[in-house]
Design goal:
single chain; alpha/beta; Rossmann fold; 2 domains; seven-stranded mixed β-sheet; five-stranded parallel β-sheet; 11 helices; 32% helix; 20% strand; binds flavin-adenine dinucleotide; UDP-GALP_mutase; isomerase; flavin adenine dinucleotide binding; FAD
Length: 367
């Protein structure tokens, strides 16, 4: 019996925004998720009063006033500004690369001094047509920044030598000749007070939701419940891996609760060196300026993906893109299924982009 207009598979941001907007237009939605909670990858787990970003650190940022106002309907945001630091060979450096970083590297105090060094190194080590990530980075930023802050970190992230990675992974390397440690250039930035769950709960208010339901295990039952399906899971899984697996890079998170009120003095500290197995440590309380007497930290390890692991970052090489295009062609022939979100589109999206994409798709569907 079709009790619902839409069955929404996946309670991540895409599914929740779609469900919220469709409900506002008088449609009846059922949202299911195979996890035991809603929110997808933005979900926060409350550990002893601290909101732990369970699937990796999430900082909201956007230049789009409409999207900023949209999320602010559901939660007030604090004025957190992402200013990560990186530890390399025992020394600490500010990110993104800016006048503070250059002072720490070379003792330069003026933009002109720093520019002279960077441009000189690019001239000496850069290539006209970089053929791999190392050559690309050397051509964009020079030797010292690359070797101190990029090379080993990137190799840990991708599990490959920089010379074996394609140049396109690094399209640009933002360099600022000002003393500004704000990682993002966007006009709006912050963390929702009370965590991302507040936004998700607001989006899903009044909507039927079932967790611990894997669509593929109860496909017959759930498909008959709704006129249309909004599918936000993996597109290759939807088509039973007909053209093979789409590959991802995975992450492993190791959490510890510590009896100290301040472990590292910053929410995000990167570890550049190859002999440190994790890429960064997140201290979650700093996202919300927490005053607790204890803290929770997460060591983030970059890992090879296997089908049993969480799929985090799509690996956008030619082979995967070819497979994805084949799945996309199948998807384009479906009349009652809408595909959306990072897994169904095999694409990395930031949160503001996924919200914009869901709003666009729901508008196209219901206007
Ligand atoms: P998801 O959140 O993955 O939701 C998909 C949901 O579908 C999941 O809950 C899953 O369980 C469910 N599902 C899948 N298959 C099935 C099935 N068969 N049956 C039922 N349910 C199913 N963005 C930012 O803007 N700022 C950041 O700082 C930031 N940091 C990030 C850090 C990391 C490590 C990662 C990986 C991403 C980060 N992002 C960040 C991006 C952000 O996480 C995404 O934009 C957003 O979560 C995508 O939402 P989604 O709904 O497309 O996918």
């Amino acid at each position: 019996m079709q009790m619902y207009d839409y069955l929404i598979v996946g309670a991540g941001l895409f599914g929740c925004v779609f469900a919220h907007e469709a409900t506002k237009k008088g449609k009846k939605c059922l949202v299911i998720d195979k996890r035991d909670h809603v929110g997808g990858n933005v979900y926060c787990e409350n550990v002893d009063g601290i909101n732990v970003h369970k699937y990796g650190a999430h900082i909201f940022h956007t230049n789009d006033k409409y999207i900023w106002d949209y999320v602010n309907q559901f939660a007030e945001f604090n004025n957190y500004v992402n200013s990560p630091v990186s530890i390399s060979k025992g020394k600490l450096y500010n990110l993104p690369f800016n006048m503070n970083t250059f002072y720490q590297l070379w003792g330069t105090k003026t933009p002109e001094e720093a520019k002279t060094i960077i441009e000189g190194q690019i001239k000496e080590h850069g290539r006209k047509n970089p053929e791999n990530l190392e050559e690309q980075a050397l051509s964009l930023i020079g030797k010292d920044v690359y070797e101190t802050l990029i090379k080993e970190y990137t190799e840990k992230q991708w599990g490959k030598k920089a010379t074996e990675l394609p140049a396109f992974i690094i399209k640009r390397l933002p360099v600022r000749y000002t003393f500004n440690n704000n990682y993002f250039n966007d006009a709006y930035q912050g963390i929702p007070k009370g965590g991302y769950n507040k936004i998700i709960d607001g989006l899903l208010e009044g909507i039927d939701v079932k967790t611990n339901v894997d669509f593929f295990e109860e496909k017959e039952t759930y498909t008959t419940l709704a006129k249309k399906i909004v599918y936000t899971g993996k597109i290759d899984e939807f088509y039973n891996y007909e053209y093979g697996n789409l590959e991802y890079r995975s992450l492993r998170f190791e959490n510890s609760r510590l009896d100290t009120d301040n472990f590292q003095g910053n929410a995000v500290v990167n570890y550049n060196d190859a002999d440190v197995p994790y890429t960064r440590i997140i201290e979650h309380k700093h996202f919300e300026f927490g005053k607790q007497e204890h803290t929770v930290i997460t060591k983030e390890y970059s890992e090879q993906w296997t089908p049993e692991k969480e799929a985090y970052y799509p690996i956008n090489n030619d082979e995967n893109q070819k497979k994805y295009q084949a799945y996309k062609t199948l998807a384009s022939k479906e009349s009652n299924i809408i595909f959306g979100g990072r897994l169904a589109e095999y694409k990395y999206y930031d949160m503001h982009q996924i919200i914009a994409s869901a709003l666009q798709k729901v508008k196209k569907e219901l206007n």
